[in-house]
C-alpha cells in the first residue's frame, strides 16, 4: 500500500491547486493526487463553452503541462475512484482493491451532474456536461443532431444552448421556474438573457415540467412535457445542478448536509481531513453567515490555498469575495459577491445597449454585482462588496460615475 504525507482526492481546480500550492510553499512531504478520470487535470468551465464549440482543444484547457506534476514530485493516481475512508487508520480504499495511506487527506472530489429521474433518463443521446468524456460524446453526435432540448435554464444549460445554437442546431430550453437563472440572479438579468437567447433563435419554455424522455431504437428521440406535448430531440442536454461527491465522508462519520461541513480553515469534523471546492459547505459572511457551497473556480482555488497554508504551518481563514463568470454569445457576464437574500436591485446602464450592471442590495448594503459587458464595474465593484458599503441608489444607478469614486 502506497503511503502519502498528503493525499488529495479529486484533480479538478481545487485538488490540482492544493497540490501545486503545497509545492509553492516548499512542502517537503509526499503528495498523491487521485482522480477518477484518466486525463491530466483540466479546466471545467470551457466544457460548456469553448471546448463544446470546438474552439479549444483539450491541450488548451489542461491546468498544467503534463511534465509539471512529475517535476514537482506530485504522484498522479489516475482512473481511480475513492470508495471508503478509514479515518482511524488513515486509509483510503479505491475500487479494484487498491488502498492508500495518508497523513493528511484533502477531499476535493467535487460532485457529479444531477441526472433526471424520469423514464428514459438513461437513454443514449441524453447528456450532462461535467467531464471531458461527457462533452466528447456530445461532439461525436453533433453531426447527426438537428434538434436539441436543454433541460434546465441555469448557467450550464444556457451556455450549452448558446454554443449549440451557434453551431446551427435547433435548440429548446425547458425550465421549471418562471424565469431562467432564477436561483442565482435577479429578474432583470433573467429577462435580458431570455430575450438574447430568443433573438438568437432559441425557444425558451418557462414554468414547464418534463414528464419523460421518449425512445426510438434505444436512443432519445423526444422530450414529453407535463402538458403532453412532445419536443423532437436528437440530443438532450441536462443541466440541473450537481450532487456533492461526499458519500465516503458520510460513511466515515463526517458532519454533512448539502455537502461536507467545514470550518473556517476547511477542516471537516474528522481528524486530519480537509474538504475544499464544490463539495465543501462553509459559513460565508458574503451570504449573511449562511452555510453554503460555492461551485466556482475562485472558491476552489482560494480554499486550496487556505488548506495548503495550514498544512505548511501558516494557517489562515477562508474569507474571499466570491466571483463567477459566464460567456454566452458575445456577452461576458461577471459576478462579484453573492446576491442571496437581496431586497433591492439598482440597474446601472441600459440593458438595451448590451452593457450594464445590476447592483444587489440587502438592507441598503451593496452585496453583489452582475456585470454584463461591463468590466470596469466588475473590477471596481469588488471593493463595494468587500466593505458592504451603503450608498444612495441614485449614485449607484448613475453609470457615468465610476464605482471607485463612490468609496
What does this structure look like?
The protein folds into three domains: 182 residues, FAD/NAD(P)-binding domain; 124 residues, FAD/NAD(P)-binding domain; 77 residues, 2-Layer Sandwich (Enolase-like, domain 1). The protein has ten helices and 26 strands. The strands form six sheets. Strands 1, 2, 3, 4, 5, 6 and 19 form a seven-stranded mixed sheet that branches. A five-stranded parallel sheet has the order 8-15-9-10-11. Strands 22-23-26-25-24 form a five-stranded antiparallel sheet. The radius of gyration is 22 Å and the shape is globular.
End-to-end separation in angstroms reads 57 Å
Low-confidence stretches: none
How many domains, in number, for the residues?
A: 3
Rg on CA atoms, Å: 22 Å
What is the helix content?
Answer: 10-25%
Which percent range describes the beta-strand content?
A: 25-35%
Q: What oligomeric state is this? A: single chain
Counting helices, strands and paired strands, the structural category is: alpha/beta
Biggest β-sheet description: 7 strands, mixed
Query: Count the strands?
Result: 26
Q: Please state the overall shape, judged from the principal axes of the Cα atoms.
A: globular
Given this structure, which CATH class of the largest domain is correct?
Alpha Beta
Looking at CATH, which topology of the largest domain would you report?
A: FAD/NAD(P)-binding domain
The name of the CATH architecture of the largest domain is: 3-Layer(bba) Sandwich
Number of helices: 10
CATH evolutionary superfamily of the largest domain: FAD/NAD(P)-binding domain
> Mean pLDDT, as a whole number?
96
Amino acid at each position: 500500500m502506497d503511503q502519502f504525507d498528503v493525499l488529495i482526492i479529486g484533480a479538478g481546480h481545487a485538488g490540482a491547486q492544493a497540490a501545486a500550492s503545497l509545492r509553492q510553499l516548499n512542502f517537503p512531504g509526499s503528495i498523491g493526487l487521485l482522480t477518477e478520470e484518466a486525463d491530466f487535470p483540466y479546466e471545467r468551465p470551457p466544457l460548456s463553452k469553448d471546448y463544446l464549440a470546438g474552439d479549444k482543444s483539450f491541450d488548451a484547457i489542461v491546468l498544467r503541462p503534463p511534465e509539471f506534476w512529475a517535476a514537482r514530485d506530485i504522484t498522479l493516481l489516475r482512473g481511480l475512484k475513492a470508495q471508503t475512508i478509514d479515518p482511524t487508520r488513515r486509509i483510503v480504499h479505491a475500487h479494484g482493491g487498491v488502498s492508500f495511506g495518508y497523513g493528511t487527506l484533502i477531499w476535493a472530489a467535487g460532485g457529479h451532474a444531477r441526472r433526471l429521474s424520469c423514464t428514459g433518463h438513461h437513454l443514449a443521446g441524453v447528456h450532462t456536461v461535467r467531464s471531458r468524456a461527457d462533452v466528447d460524446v456530445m461532439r461525436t453526435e453533433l453531426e447527426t443532431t438537428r434538434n436539441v432540448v436543454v433541460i434546465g435554464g441555469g448557467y450550464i444549460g444556457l451556455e450549452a444552448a448558446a454554443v449549440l445554437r451557434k453551431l446551427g442546431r435547433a435548440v429548446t430550453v425547458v425550465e421549471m421556474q418562471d424565469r431562467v437563472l432564477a436561483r442565482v440572479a435577479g429578474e432583470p438579468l433573467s429577462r435580458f438573457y431570455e430575450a438574447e437567447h430568443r433573438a438568437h433563435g432559441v425557444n425558451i419554455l418557462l414554468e414547464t415540467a418534463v414528464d419523460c424522455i421518449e425512445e426510438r431504437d434505444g436512443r432519445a428521440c423526444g422530450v414529453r412535457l407535463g402538458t403532453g406535448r412532445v419536443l423532437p430531440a436528437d440530443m438532450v442536454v441536462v443541466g440541473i445542478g450537481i450532487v456533492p461527491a461526499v458519500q465516503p465522508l458520510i460513511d466515515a462519520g463526517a458532519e454533512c448536509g448539502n455537502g461536507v461541513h467545514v470550518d473556517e480553515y476547511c477542516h471537516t469534523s474528522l481528524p486530519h481531513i480537509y474538504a475544499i471546492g464544490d463539495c465543501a459547505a462553509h459559513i460565508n459572511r458574503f451570504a449573511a453567515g449562511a452555510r453554503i457551497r460555492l461551485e466556482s473556480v475562485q472558491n476552489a482555488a482560494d480554499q486550496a490555498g487556505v488548506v495548503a497554508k495550514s498544512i505548511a504551518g501558516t494557517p489562515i481563514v477562508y474569507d474571499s469575495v466570491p466571483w463567477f463568470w459566464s460567456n454566452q454569445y458575445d456577452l461576458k457576464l461577471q459576478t462579484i459577491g453573492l446576491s442571496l437574500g437581496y431586497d433591492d436591485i439598482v440597474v446601472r446602464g441600459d440593458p438595451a445597449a448590451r452593457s450594464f450592471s445590476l447592483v444587489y442590495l440587502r438592507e441598503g448594503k451593496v452585496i453583489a454585482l452582475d456585470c454584463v459587458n461591463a468590466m470596469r464595474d466588475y473590477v471596481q465593484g469588488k471593493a463595494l462588496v468587500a466593505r458592504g458599503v451603503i450608498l444612495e441608489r441614485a449614485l449607484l444607478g448613475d453609470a457615468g460615475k465610476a464605482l471607485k469614486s463612490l468609496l
